[in-house]
């Protein structure tokens, strides 16, 4: 097993060569990543707030001063990496570290609790590396990658062995995982299983239950500020106005099928079809492990059904239990990727499953999951095909465009803290990364008062488009300078090759000016700029940037 572990980690390191060679020219996921989770940590870092837990501090470069209460909330090991390394390298090293933990967890599970698993060593390496390279959101820490080693720890406690190392892993897990994505769901699942073992199996599981208690206490310690703020803070946030509408039956059924086949993208997109084929084969043939396989499949189906119908629940309890809307209690989907791999390992403990079928579909499943990893796939493509067109594959560097925005900073020639900006057709995180003070941002939670204030600015554009209006009014985490014309094309991310223009932009420029906004960074040309009180100062473009920026002065 030691050799399998070392070879697997070696292959993982090899797969990261594109990132180490391309550096900031690597492709890094943008959606809910560079536009949000990444920039939160970067802003905390450059403002000196990574390890400052004073909730009265203000992040002046967001919303004219966003209280750290709304971002600064947990003790996370990821922050140590951001403190020690440049933000890009902190991101890459974190991704490498969590995936290494994923490999270790898979190998430990098979070594200590997979005695009946008859899998060739080379295929176990493929399985371990494939799991490690799932397209997880790496800034969620070991929320998914840590599940194998967490299960290994609880199985140790259930069997009353390896107590010290198991409690150590359990205690550390909350410090390197995402509270909202994991805590309620892991605790509920473990507690239910512990009670089942005690009642059904009539087994002494005191160590197991103590482990659940230790995990619960560790979650409280790691997220004490979040919990304290939730219990004590009475200020209204934009989440108080979150509202869901009843989805139609057709889209619900489609979402159930998609979740069963491909998981949920925030957890990890997964190529589930090969596993489902083998599972159905096992159940149909009544192989030796078919009941266990059936229970796993039912678990995936129930999770998919609950996830896909959760909106019906939130609408039904809209008035009486609004917490169901403001906090997503449907994230059991974070178990789905690991359940698929548990299914795969279970197949190898069933001697009656056809080996040719099993080996073939194992390769298809594992390689398919690696293919879903867009960061690895596109970065490797850029490295192997350097002369090919990569304009559709923004890199970390071309997204944030530091050289281009340095030109803009020099052109404006004013201290960045003396004025405010908003962005149009690009994510505000780009301006924030480059040191600008923005009135717009993508925030998971922020004061409701500011939502009303910013809504006044974009109200004319919202009134043009019901999709945008419902998107902002019923959710509103993207506090962006929306354009109804761009919503039909490039929306909030308009690269220079789109050649889009806005014929008629309607925003409240006077309100922007009252909020100290002096410039608009637009990735598209605004035809009616002069009519609404904007003056085109200059246009900036270079070969490295994914965008061209029209600088409008208010």
Describe the fold and architecture:
With 554 residues, the protein is of the alpha/beta class. The chain has a domain at 401-553. Helices cover 55% and strands 6% of the residues. It contains 26 helices and ten strands. The protein has helices at residues 2-15, 17-22, 30-34, 37-46, 77-84, 87-113, 121-132, 147-158, 163-172, 179-200, 206-222, 224-232, 249-262, 273-285, 290-316, 323-326, 336-347, 355-371, 374-384, 396-400, 402-412, 428-433, 448-462, 466-474, 484-487, 509-514; strands at residues 58-59, 66-67, 420-424, 441-442, 478-479, 501-502, 517-522, 525-526, 535-540, 549-553. The strands form four sheets. It has a four-stranded mixed sheet. Helix 10 runs antiparallel to helix 11 (206-222). The longest helix is centred in the first third of the chain and has 27 residues, at 87-113.
Index terms:
alpha/beta, two-stranded antiparallel ribbon, 26 helices, 10 strands, 6% strand
Intertermini distance:
65 Å
Shape: globular
Helical content stands at 55-70%
User: Strand-residue fraction?
Assistant: 5-15%
Structural class: alpha/beta
Tell me about the largest β-sheet. 4 strands, mixed
Radius of gyration: 25 Å
Annotation, overall tally of beta strands: 10
Q: Mean pLDDT, nearest integer? A: 91
Unreliably modeled segments: none
Separate helix tally: 26
Q: Strands across the major sheet, in which order?
A: 3-7-10-9
Concise structural overview:
The protein is an alpha/beta fold.
């Amino acid at each position: 097993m030691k050799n399998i572990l070392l070879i697997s980690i070696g292959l993982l390191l090899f797969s990261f060569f594109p990132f180490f060679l391309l550096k900031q020219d690597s492709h890094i996921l943008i959606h809910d990543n560079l536009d949000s989770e990444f920039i939160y940590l970067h802003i905390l870092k450059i403002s000196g707030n990574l390890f400052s837990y004073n909730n009265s501090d203000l992040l002046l470069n967001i919303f004219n001063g966003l209280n750290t209460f709304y971002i600064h909330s947990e003790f996370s090991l990821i922050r140590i990496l951001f403190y020690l390394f440049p933000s890009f390298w902190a991101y890459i090293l974190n991704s490498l570290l969590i995936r290494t933990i994923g490999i270790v967890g898979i190998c430990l599970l098979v070594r200590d609790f997979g005695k009946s698993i008859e899998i060739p060593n080379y295929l176990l390496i493929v399985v371990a590396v494939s799991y490690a390279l799932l397209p997880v959101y790496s800034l969620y820490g070991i929320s998914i990658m840590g599940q194998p080693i967490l299960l290994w720890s609880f199985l140790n406690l259930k069997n009353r062995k390896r107590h010290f190392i198991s409690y150590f892993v359990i205690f550390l897990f909350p410090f390197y995982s995402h509270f909202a994505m994991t805590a309620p769901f892991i605790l509920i699942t473990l507690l239910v299983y512990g009670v089942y073992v005690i009642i059904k199996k009539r087994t002494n599981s005191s160590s197991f239950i103590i482990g659940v208690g230790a995990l619960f206490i560790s979650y409280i310690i790691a997220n004490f500020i979040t919990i304290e703020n939730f219990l004590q803070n009475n200020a209204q946030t934009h989440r108080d106005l979150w509202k869901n509408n009843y989805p139609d039956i057709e889209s619900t059924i489609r979402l159930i099928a998609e979740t069963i086949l491909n998981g949920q993208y925030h957890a990890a997109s997964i190529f589930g079809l090969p596993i489902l084929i083998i599972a159905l084969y096992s159940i149909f043939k009544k192989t030796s492990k078919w009941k266990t396989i059936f229970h796993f499949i039912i678990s995936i189906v129930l999770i998919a059904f609950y996830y896909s119908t959760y909106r019906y629940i939130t609408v039904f309890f809209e008035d009486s239990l609004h917490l169901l809307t403001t906090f997503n209690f449907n994230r059991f989907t974070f178990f789905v990727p690991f359940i698929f791999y548990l299914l795969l390992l279970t197949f190898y403990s069933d001697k009656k499953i056809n080996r040719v079928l099993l080996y073939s579909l194992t390769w298809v499943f594992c390689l398919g999951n690696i293919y879903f990893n867009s960061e690895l796939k596109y970065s490797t493509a850029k490295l192997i095909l350097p002369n090919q067109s990569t304009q559709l594959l923004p890199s970390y560097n071309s997204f944030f465009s530091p050289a281009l925005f340095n030109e803009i900073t020099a052109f404006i020639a004013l201290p960045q803290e003396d004025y405010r900006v908003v962005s149009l057709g690009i994510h505000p995180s780009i301006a924030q990364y480059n040191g600008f003070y923005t009135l717009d941002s993508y925030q998971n939670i922020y004061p409701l008062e500011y939502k009303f204030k910013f809504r006044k600015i974009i109200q004319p554009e919202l009134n043009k488009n019901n999709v945008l209006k419902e998107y902002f009014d019923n959710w509103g985490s993207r506090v962006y300078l929306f354009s109804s014309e761009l919503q039909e094309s490039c929306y909030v991310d308009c690269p220079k090759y789109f050649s889009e223009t806005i014929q008629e932009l309607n925003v409240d420029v006077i309100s922007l000016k009252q909020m100290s906004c002096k410039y608009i960074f637009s990735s598209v040309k605004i035809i009616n700029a002069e009519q609404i009180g904007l003056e085109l100062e200059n246009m900036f473009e270079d070969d490295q940037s994914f965008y061209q920026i029209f600088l409008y002065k208010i």
